[in-house]
């Protein structure tokens, strides 16, 4: 009985969880906690249906052009997912232009460095958004760049980079576009198709 009581604290009337303000894990609602009390096998029809619905709803949240995109669910931290894209979507002869104005742009560079992915960067102060014109200039100067990676909302400061304007530059140059939308997706309106985004990563 004691274990059962502990497991259900989040749903007991009058019980209030402490609000978590760390970068994760985040506070979850009583309905989320309640859903987590149910075990489902990965081959259960109910589980498969839930995963399908989640993927469809994520794509609907990301763009009006549903048929052009897929949501891929991964188990791991946000950094794990960023690393997954950088190390699998960039070919061996590819090169990533990383737009850096905070800790998470810097982390992308560290991931590429550790994984042996060729990269270069545009670095600006943490209180300055990356200028699309600077991206255009860098792409024109270096035809070996195949991908451009940027953090939408740089968690270091909360600064928002102009991902749609940058995306227009990237698409015009015929490059692949990757956006880390860890702290913006679902909170700040965006359409991945309108922004020309090829890969967008976010996390619960």
SSE layout:
Blueprint: H1 2-7, H2 30-35, H3 45-62, H4 78-88, E1 96-100, H5 103-115, E2 119-123, H6 132-141, E3 147-151, E4 153-154, E5 159-160, H7 163-172, E6 176-180, E7 199-201
Parallel strand pairs: 1-2, 1-3, 3-6, 6-7
Antiparallel strand pairs: 4-5
Helix pairs in contact: 4-5, 6-7
Model description:
By secondary structure, this protein is an alpha/beta fold. The chain has seven helices and seven strands. Helix 4 crosses helix 5 and helix 6 runs parallel beside helix 7.
What is the radius of gyration? Answer: 20 Å
* Distance between the ends: 31 Å
> Which class best fits the helix and strand makeup?
alpha/beta
Q: What does the oligomeric state look like here?
A: single chain
- Work out the helicity level: 25-40%
DSSP helical segment count: 7
The succession of helices and strands, N to C, reads HHHHEHEHEEEHEE
Strand content: 5-15%
Envelope shape: globular
Look at the structure and give the mean pLDDT. Answer: 90
- Spans where pLDDT lies below 50 across 5 or more residues: 1-10
**Strand order of the biggest β-sheet:** 2-1-3-6-7
The major sheet is characterized as: 5 strands, parallel
How many DSSP-defined strands? Answer: 7
Feature tags:
204 residues; alpha/beta; two-stranded antiparallel ribbon; 7 helices; 13% strand; globular
């Amino acid at each position: 009985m004691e274990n059962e009581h502990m497991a259900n604290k989040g749903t007991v009337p009058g019980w209030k969880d402490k609000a978590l303000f760390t970068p994760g894990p985040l506070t979850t609602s009583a309905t989320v906690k309640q859903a987590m009390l149910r075990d489902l096998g990965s081959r259960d029809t109910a589980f498969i249906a839930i995963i399908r619905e989640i993927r469809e709803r994520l794509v609907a949240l990301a763009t009006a052009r549903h048929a052009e995109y897929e949501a891929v669910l991964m188990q791991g931290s946000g950094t794990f997912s960023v690393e997954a894209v950088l190390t699998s979507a960039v070919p061996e002869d590819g090169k990533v232009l990383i737009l850096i104005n905070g800790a998470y742009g810097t982390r992308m560079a560290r991931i590429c460095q550790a994984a042996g992915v060729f990269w270069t960067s545009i670095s600006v102060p943490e209180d300055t958004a990356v200028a699309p014109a600077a991206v255009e200039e860098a792409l024109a100067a270096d035809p070996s760049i195949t991908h451009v990676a940027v953090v939408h909302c740089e968690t270091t400061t909360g600064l928002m980079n102009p991902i749609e304007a940058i995306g227009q530059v990237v698409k015009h140059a015929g490059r692949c576009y990757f956006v880390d939308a860890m702290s913006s997706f679902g909170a700040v309106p965006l359409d991945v198709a309108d922004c020309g985004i090829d890969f967008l990563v976010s996390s619960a």
